[in-house]
């Protein structure tokens, strides 16, 4: 069976994409993988595809893996996955330039929230929580490196500018703050599937008080950094 609609989600880490892919995967008309270019492919590429293909062989040529994933379905007419440009630059360029593939760009515009979430994930090893799953321990308070944060801002801006500049064909932009709703509903409409009330398949890891993620002695530097960036509102964040 050939998929009717193919899509790719472009974003960066800690932007709500795990929630999106896992939630979309509940829709009977959507066959949605996670990050197909992650090393632990068994956690990201769905089992029906893995059973039917030499995944490691395909992965030697990332463009071939991407095309094979998008061309395969065990039944659902809509097929997609997520990726970041740095994971497979040549594949990203080809996918972005293909007007026949729908693109979804998910952006966490609160860069301080994204930055701190990445740091916490690397520190704790906890990247996602399933609904009803509790944390085993409170996360540690973070130090703050202003130069590192400013470099992160530049990388993020460059990444999302490139997504928008090179995306040919149909493009949907979704903000992290729209997740799960109305973002999931907007994505379903964009993909042309019948709307379903899909239960979110991930839960938020940390509180909306972004400043409180940092150690008390670091907070003045955090405040100064977001003021320099012109976004004092980044000290707090809400979603959905």
Describe it for me?
This protein is of the alpha/beta class. The chain has one domain (5-235): Rossmann fold, CATH 3.40.50. The chain has helices at residues 17-24, 47-52, 55-59, 62-70, 89-97, 111-124, 146-166, 183-191, 219-228; strands at residues 5-10, 30-35, 78-83, 102-107, 171-175. Helix 4 (62-70) packs across helix 5 (89-97). 36% of the residues are buried. The model has no long low-confidence stretch (mean pLDDT 93).
Brief digest:
By secondary structure, the chain is α/β, with parallel strands linked by helices. Helix content is 38%, strand content 12%. It is globular, with a radius of gyration of 18 Å.
Shape: globular
CATH architecture: 3-Layer(aba) Sandwich
Would you tell me the overall average pLDDT? 93
* Ends distance: 35 Å
Percent helix among the residues? 25-40%
CATH superfamily: P-loop containing nucleotide triphosphate hydrolases
Sheet of most strands? 5 strands, parallel
Tell me the CATH topology: Rossmann fold
CATH top level is: Alpha Beta
Which regions are unreliable across 5 or more consecutive residues at pLDDT < 50?
none
Q: Give the H and E element order.
A: EHEHHHEHEHHEHH
Task: Give the number of helices.
Answer: 9
Number of E-state strands: 5
How are the strands of the biggest sheet laid out side by side?
A: 2-3-1-4-5
Per-chain topology:
Blueprint: E1 5-10, H1 17-24, E2 30-35, H2 47-52, H3 55-59, H4 62-70, E3 78-83, H5 89-97, E4 102-107, H6 111-124, H7 146-166, E5 171-175, H8 183-191, H9 219-228
Parallel strand pairs: 1-3, 1-4, 2-3, 4-5
């Amino acid at each position: 069976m050939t998929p009717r609609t193919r899509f790719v989600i472009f974003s960066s880490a800690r932007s709500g994409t795990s929630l999106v892919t896992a939630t979309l995967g509940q829709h009977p008309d959507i066959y949605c993988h996670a990050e197909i270019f992650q090393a632990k492919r068994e956690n990201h590429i769905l089992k029906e595809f893995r059973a039917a293909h030499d995944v490691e062989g395909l992965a030697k040529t990332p463009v071939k893996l991407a095309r094979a994933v998008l061309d395969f379905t065990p039944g659902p007419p809509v097929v997609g996955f997520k990726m970041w440009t740095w994971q497979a630059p040549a594949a990203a360029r080809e996918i972005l330039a293909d007007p026949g593939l729908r693109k979804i760009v998910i952006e966490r515009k609160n860069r301080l929230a994204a930055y701190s979430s990445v740091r916490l994930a690397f520190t704790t090893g906890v990247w996602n929580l399933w609904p009803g799953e509790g944390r085993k321990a409170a996360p540690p308070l973070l130090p703050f490196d202003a130069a590192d944060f400013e470099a992160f801002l530049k990388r993020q801006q460059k990444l999302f500018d490139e997504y928008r500049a090179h995306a040919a064909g149909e493009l949907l932009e979704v903000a992290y703050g729209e997740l799960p709703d109305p973002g999931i509903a907007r994505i379903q409409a964009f993909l042309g599937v019948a709307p379903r009330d899909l239960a979110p398949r991930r839960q938020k890891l940390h509180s909306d008080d972004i400043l409180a993620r940092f150690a008390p002695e670091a907070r003045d530097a955090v405040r100064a950094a977001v003021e320099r960036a012109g976004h004092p509102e980044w000290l707090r964040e809400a979603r959905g």
